[in-house]
Amino acid sequence: MPAEESKKTLTVAQKCDLLQFARQTIAAHIANLPLPRLRGDWQELAHVHAGVFVSLHIGERLRGCIGYVESGRALPEALGETAIAAASRDPRFEPVTADELAQVEIEISILSPLRAAASPAEIILGRHGVMVRLGPQQGLLLPQVSLRHDWDSETFLAHVCQKAGLSADAWKDSDAAILIFEAEVFSEGNFA
């Protein structure tokens, strides 16, 4: 995604449309119905190529979260794919049922490009998400996760490492890459 697009924020109407599209896509997938079509007035969003994550919550409990760090697809297309995956293919959870869907709150995170961080001091909690790569393993947590758990930077990094299947202090390894990103995060709760 070009740098100028990474700074662009979505309008309230676009955010509401994307949330509605994600919900309709999940509902159609669960019911085994044809997926909704992308709306014709989304031409502007069709030019946005960014990482996107869809997180599903029931109350305070995570119910699914899957996404792309980077995407070669247009934002609406990538969003549809990640919405279905979060509801049906997160290996930590059983697929979301039709009965549960009414209780699910959908949250969308649109990611900026990754950039290397030299130290934990560069991580601004609540603003930066983190990815740690070491060899073939990598883990990622979105910016809002550190705030929800009231973690400091090193605790955040430890949890990212554990998510990658690494030891909690693997980020200190000289071969480990610490990558940070920002995200535009919005949920149905923002517009209720």
Instruction: Give helix % range.
Output: 25-40%
Query: What's the CATH first level of the largest domain?
Result: Alpha Beta
**Unreliable stretches:** 1-6
Structural class: alpha+beta
Please tell me the total number of domains: 2
CATH superfamily placement of the largest domain = Hypothetical protein ph0010, domain 1
**Distance from first to last alpha carbon:** 30 Å
Order of helices and strands: HHHEEHHEEEEHHE
Radius of gyration: 17 Å
Beta fraction of the residues?
A: 25-35%
Number of helices: 7
Shape: globular
Strand count, sense and barrel status of the largest sheet are:
7 strands, antiparallel
Characterize the quaternary organization of these chains. Answer: single chain
Number of strands: 7
Q: Could you please say which CATH topology of the largest domain applies here?
A: Glycoprotein, Type 4 Pilin
CATH architectural arrangement of the largest domain: 2-Layer Sandwich
What does this structure look like?
- Strands 1, 2, 3, 4, 5, 6 and 7 form a 7-stranded antiparallel beta sheet that branches.
- Helices cover 33% and strands 25% of the residues.
- The radius of gyration is 17 Å and the shape is globular.
- Residues 1-6 have low confidence and may be disordered.
- The chain folds into 2 domains: 3-111, Glycoprotein, Type 4 Pilin (2-Layer Sandwich); 115-183, Dna Ligase, domain 1.
- Helix 2 (12-30) packs across helix 4.
- The chain has helices spanning 3-7, 12-30, 43-46, 75-88, 98-101, 143-149, 153-163; strands at residues 51-58, 61-68, 105-111, 115-116, 128-134, 137-141, 177-187.
- The protein contains 7 helices and 7 strands, in the order H-H-H-E-E-H-H-E-E-E-E-H-H-E.
- The protein is of the alpha+beta class and 192 residues long.
